[in-house]
């Protein structure tokens, strides 16, 4: 670790003025914060990790069985209860679900972000919308889908609305953050020129935030794909997640789980290549 | 003069045309996806019905007061699982990221192996992790811990690796020129510089894992996710509402704390 600089002192004159002590205190605050956070995290982890392991637990057996299952999954994937075509359809459904929720979410979130950016909206609106979004974000997606599946019935409607809720809350925050980065001088200049709000949005805000809009939307698409799988499994909303849940907890067929995991990984690979291309294209 | 006007008009016309084409493509994609999924657009207009139902049924009533004890206990366990899995994953992934970052790696093959491993861990859906682990480790907190651990390991390794690569090579070379060893470069040069960025990632991941722990709990039958499912499916909506409320409080509290730490760090 680097020693703090106040160890080096000139013997003849002690640095007494506030100018010298401010940067030192500043750096110390950072160090203390990091150390304190690490200590708290380490304490929580070390104190509670042993309590998680239940009594009469044979770690050895569990690990061998885990290794065995992983081996079955990755080395011997084959299908028994469904066909490959069915699974492909289910994967397609999950992808469509992710796409649809991202599309609806990004459009709605754009307007919410306009209403909650510091550059355009009054403070009470900013605070109101951002706290509402924080509360919506705090509820996990699965709970939203479960709640809406009671209202709409189990199926696509509940899944779309549930995932959209979370997407809107997430995207509103990141869009508003990237709009806040626009320098206020530009907007003030445009206002001084007598431009209306709609013109400011079209000519200043949209061109400025377009790159971050695209990259955040794409990131959200990846998250929504993972969410679509999770929601299918935990809330029975269909798609490949549901198939995954059925074969792992009803048929206990890990060969089948392997096939599905490979399919999901293949799609994730495609997404990763696209995101790599996007990043190199924008740089 | 006239040709200038023509040019400007042409410019705006192409711009408008492009915008319309993009809008039409997305509109068609929306309709296609809706039909493919069997999603009815009008249900978006019924969102308020869901909220109304939520407010009507999920208000904790007298009977649900008795559940506080169990909810608090399970909420605490969920929080612990999220924090412990993130911390353990952070330690391992810092090691992996240093070995695997292209600027510090001992061999380029090691870097590629770690890159592939982290991508694999990240992209296997958490549902699959939870289910495989549930089968071997049975229904306890350890299962949830391990599922979150593997996910977080994949994610943080990637994030840490990119942070280290952004650090660049100049400072490393400068330190090496003074005769510093590999370990000295890492502990004296690299870690103090990137500590703030790493901390931010860890805090973000804890926030995320608190939310994901609910999902994992739902799948593996532990923690707050399990009792939500239990109350919800046995139609004890008051108690389920209490669970939702407590999850909101926990997540918002974690977010506020991590914002506070973030502000102290900047």
Describe this structure in words.
The complex is a heterodimer of chains A (283) and B (266). Chain A is mainly alpha-helical and 283 residues long. Chain A has a domain at 93-235: MetI-like (MetI-like fold), CATH 1.10.3720. Helices cover 80% and strands 0% of the residues of chain A. Chain A contains 10 helices and no strands. Chain A has helices spanning 18-52, 59-75, 84-115, 123-138, 141-152, 156-180, 184-192, 197-235, 239-249, 254-282. Chain A is globular and about 70 Å long. Chain B is mostly helical and 266 residues long. Helices cover 83% and strands 0% of the residues of chain B. Chain B contains 10 helices and no strands. Chain B has helices at 2-37, 47-58, 68-100, 108-123, 126-137, 141-166, 170-177, 182-220, 223-233, 237-265. In chain B, helix 5 packs across helix 6, helix 6 packs antiparallel against helix 8 and helix 8 (182-220) packs antiparallel against helix 10 (237-265). At the A-B interface, helix 1, helix 2, helix 3, helix 4 and helix 5 of A face helix 1, helix 2, helix 3, helix 4 and helix 5 of B.
The ordered string of helix (H) and strand (E) elements of chain A is HHHHHHHHHH
Q: In the CATH hierarchy, what is the architecture of the largest domain in chain B at level 2?
A: Orthogonal Bundle
Overall body shape of chain B = flat
Task: Name the shape of chain A in a single word.
Answer: globular
Low-confidence runs of chain A: none
**CATH superfamily descriptor of the domain at 93-235 in chain A:** MetI-like
Structural class estimated from helices and strands of chain B: mainly alpha
Low-confidence segments of chain B, ≥5 residues, pLDDT <50?
none
Distance between the amino and carboxyl termini of chain A: 35 Å
Number of strands of chain A: 0
Number of strands of chain B: 0
Q: What portion of residues of chain B belong to β-strands?
A: under 5%
Q: Which CATH top level class of the domain at 93-235 in chain A fits? A: Mainly Alpha
| Fourth CATH level, the homologous superfamily of the largest domain in chain B | MetI-like
CATH architecture of the domain at 93-235 in chain A: Orthogonal Bundle
> Mean pLDDT of chain A, nearest integer?
83
Beta percentage of chain A is under 5%
Structural class of chain A: mainly alpha
Radius of gyration of chain A, in angstroms, nearest whole number: 26 Å
Subcellular location (chain B): Cell membrane
Domain ABC transmembrane type-1 (chain B): 75-258
Membrane topology (chain B): Multi-pass membrane protein
Protein name (chain B): Phosphonate ABC transporter permease protein
């Amino acid at each position: 670790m680097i020693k703090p600089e106040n160890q080096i002192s000139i013997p003849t004159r002690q640095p007494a003025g506030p100018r010298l002590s401010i940067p030192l205190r500043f750096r110390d605050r950072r160090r203390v914060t990091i150390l304190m956070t690490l200590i708290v995290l380490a304490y929580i982890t070390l104190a509670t990790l042993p309590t998680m392991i239940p009594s009469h637990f044979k770690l050895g057996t569990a690990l061998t069985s885990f290794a065995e299952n992983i081996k079955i999954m990755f080395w011997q994937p084959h299908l028994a209860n469904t066909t490959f075509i069915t699974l492909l359809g289910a994967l397609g459904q999950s992808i469509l679900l992710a796409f649809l929720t991202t599309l609806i979410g990004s459009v709605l979130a754009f307007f919410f972000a306009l209403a909650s950016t510091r550059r355009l909206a009054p403070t009470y609106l900013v605070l109101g919308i951002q706290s509402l979004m924080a509360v919506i974000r705090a509820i996990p997606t699965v709970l939203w889908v479960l709640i809406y599946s009671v209202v709409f019935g189990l199926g696509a409607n509940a899944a779309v609305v549930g995932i959209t809720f979370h997407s809107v809350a997430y995207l509103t925050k990141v869009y508003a953050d990237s709009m806040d980065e626009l320098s206020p001088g530009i907007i003030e200049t445009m206002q001084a020129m007598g431009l209306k709000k709609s013109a400011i949005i079209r000519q200043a805000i949209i061109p400025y935030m377009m790159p971050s809009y695209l990259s955040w939307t794409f990131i959200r698409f990846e998250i929504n794909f993972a969410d679509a799988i999770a929601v299918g499994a935990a809330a029975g909303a269909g798609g490949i997640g549901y198939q995954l849940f059925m074969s792992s907890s009803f048929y206990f067929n890990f060969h089948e789980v392997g096939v599905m995991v490979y399919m999901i990984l293949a799609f994730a690979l495609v997404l990763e290549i696209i995101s790599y291309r996007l990043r190199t294209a924008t740089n | 003069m006239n040709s200038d006007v023509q040019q400007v008009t042409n410019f705006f016309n192409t711009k408008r045309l492009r915008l319309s084409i993009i809008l039409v493509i997305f509109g068609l994609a929306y309709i296609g996806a809706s039909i493919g999924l069997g999603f009815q657009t009008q249900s978006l207009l019924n969102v308020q019905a869901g909220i109304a139902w939520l407010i009507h049924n999920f208000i904790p009533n007298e009977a649900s007061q008795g559940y506080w004890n169990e909810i608090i206990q399970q909420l605490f366990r969920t929080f612990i699982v999220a924090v412990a899995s993130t911390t353990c994953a952070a330690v391992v992934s810092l090691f992996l990221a240093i070995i695997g970052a292209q600027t510090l790696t001992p061999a380029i093959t090691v870097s590629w192996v770690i890159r592939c491993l982290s991508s694999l861990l990240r992209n296997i859906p958490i549902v699959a992790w939870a289910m495989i682990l549930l089968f071997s480790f049975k229904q306890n907190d350890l299962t949830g811990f391990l599922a979150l651990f593997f996910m977080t390991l994949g994610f943080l390794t990637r994030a840490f690796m990119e942070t280290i690569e952004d650090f660049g090579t100049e400072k490393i070379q400068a330190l090496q020129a003074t005769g510093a060893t590999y370990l000295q470069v890492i502990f004296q040069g690299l870690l103090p510089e990137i500590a703030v960025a790493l901390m931010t990632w860890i805090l973000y991941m804890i926030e995320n894992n608190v939310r994901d722990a609910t999902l994992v709990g739902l799948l593996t039958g532990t923690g707050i996710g399990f009792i939500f499912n239990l109350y919800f499916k046995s139609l004890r909506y008051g108690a389920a509402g209490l669970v939702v409320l407590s999850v909101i409080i926990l997540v918002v509290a974690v977010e506020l704390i991590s914002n506070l730490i973030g502000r102290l760090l900047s």
